[in-house]
Amino acid sequence: MLNNAYRHRIIMKALLSFLLVTTAGISQPSQAELSTLFTTPQERQIINANRYKTDSVVTRPVQVREPEIEEIRQLIQEKVEMSFSVTGIAISNSGPNTVWINNRVYEEGEHLEDNSHFKVITGDDIKVRITTPDGKHYYVTSGETVDVTYLVSATN
Q: How confident is the model over 109-145, as pLDDT tens digits?
């Protein structure tokens, strides 16, 4: 039986012999075969000229519309905090209901001092629903005070 080192040398020699035999049949390329892909110098000159040419891109100036003052005011919002104290509610069968809010008398349908509006809700408990300009609802009854907070766009 052959040892591993001897077997390894035989395999290496066989491979080397095989490589020498197969590469002997391959001829070296001639100088003519190594020329460029393009047959004429004129074609090469055209390609080089196109390669380094830059395409000038024409851009049109974009017209930017300046925002109007009113649009800017709508983006700037202020936080409003108010308290509404209801001291009395009068229900009327023949006309609008009346509510005393912050010691002022309002008829249903009028706007409050901060542009909120209210509605008297009758039923088991008579309540006043105050709706702030941002659409939030707050409920209060006679003798109660409610604190409201909302955001409005800047007006000045």
A: 888 888 888 999 888 888 999 999 888 999 999 899 9
Indicate the helix (H) or strand (E) that contains 104: strand 104-107
Amino acid letter, residue 155? T
Instruction: State pLDDT tens for residues 62-103.
Output: 777 777 776 666 677 788 888 999 999 888 888 888 999 998
Tell me which residue has tokens 């005393």: 100
| DSSP calls for 22-43 | HHHTSPPPPGGGGS-SSSSHHH
- Residue 66 has a CB neighbour count (10 Å cut-off) of 7
Half-sphere exposure of 154 (CA within 13 A, CB side): 10
The sign of the CA dihedral 17, 21, 23, 28 is: positive
Instruction: State whether residue 6 is helix, strand or coil.
Output: helix
Q: Residue 119, Cβ neighbours under 10 Å: how many?
A: 14
Pairing state between β 137-140 and 127-131: antiparallel
What tokens appear for 8 in the block?
């390894």
